From TrEMBL:
Protein name: Aldose 1-epimerase
Biological process terms in GO annotation: carbohydrate metabolic process
Organism: Enterococcus florum
A Pfam cross-reference name: Aldose_epim
Coiled coil: none
Length: 291
């Protein structure tokens, strides 16, 4: 089953598997903005990352003296969600923890993903509610891939990414083991990233963000663009595969980050992790605007 939303500006398609966005098209230009999940390059389009962002050291963590294992980016992207509300311009999907998820993530929770079309903007809201009687810890993010080029007559290298507002930002590098080097951030003055595939030879470009942030994917050769906007996310990851390459770039708002080099592997000490008391909710949203 594919869930569809539509208005005068956009057509949207969503899969209940992972509550994953599969298509965002402009009505006027009939242009696709979402990567169409070629399994030979990258088999996903816009997965949610939960309960961890990035890789855990040795794919392992400890909680209350017990050892657990989680793969890169967690398990939520591979779960089947239930559609609980659906109108022409909104869809609400939910997933609740199971005995299976609790084997390697010992918390009881419900996640709700809400997609809402507002003119030429798709609002993507994510809520997790702690259904247990103890504090829960988690990270959250999204890994949406966007077509680059947007205009199929152009090339990947014709595009750039702009980070707004313009300011000096910390960039976090990843090791070969995909761990975060939090102790040696790079301070970067430039807010423009000219896209080349080689730029991702050492994996994602990760920037600290705070407050209201916009990430713009654009070309000087074409008026069409995409803007990712959000508040309340600690990092944004910019990624495209290498050396196998594809005509897309991922813009990933994150509340969390891969384990650092000196990770203790204690779940309650994970950097940038979120804490949620019993019966409380955590909500974040980001917005995709197409022009």
């Amino acid at each position: 089953m594919i869930i569809q939303l539509a208005n005068a500006w956009c057509n949207v398609r969503i899969s209940p598997h992972g509550a994953e966005l599969k298509s965002l098209q402009s009505v006027a230009a009939k242009q696709e903005y979402i990567w169409q999940a070629d399994p030979a390059i990258w088999e996903r389009s816009a997965p949610f990352l939960f309960p961890n962002v990035g890789r855990l050291k040795e794919n392992t963590y400890f909680y209350q003296n017990k050892k657990y294992h989680l793969g890169q980016h967690g398990f939520l992207r591979d779960q089947d969600f239930q559609l609980v509300e659906h109108t022409e311009n909104q869809a609400v999907l939910q997933f609740e923890s199971t005995e299976e998820t609790q084997k390697n993530y010992p918390f009881t929770f419900r996640t709700t993903v809400t997609y809402t079309l507002r003119d030429n903007t798709l609002v993507v809201a994510f809520t997790v509610k702690n259904l247990g009687d103890k504090k829960m810890y988690f990270s959250y993010g999204n890994h949406a891939g966007f077509c680059a080029p947007i205009n199929p007559d152009l090339t990947f290298e014709d595009y750039a990414i702009e980070l707004l507002p313009h300011q000096r930002r910390k960039r976090i590098r990843l090791t070969k083991e995909k761990q975060s080097d939090l102790e040696h951030p790079l301070l970067e003055e430039s807010n423009r990233i000219a896209l080349t595939h080689e730029k991702f030879k050492k994996d994602a470009l990760i920037y600290q963000t705070e407050g209201e942030t916009q990430i713009r994917l654009y070309s000087d050769k074409d008026p069409r663009q995409l803007i990712v906007s959000y508040e309340g996310f600690s990092y944004v990851g910019i990624w495209s595969p290498y050396p196998t390459t594809g005509d897309f770039v991922c813009i990933q708002p994150w509340c969390g980050i891969a384990d650092p080099i000196a990770a203790t592997q204690q779940w309650t000490q994970k950097p940038a992790s979120q804490e949620l008391a019993a019966n409380q909710e955590f909500t974040r949203e980001f917005r995709l605007t197409i022009d």
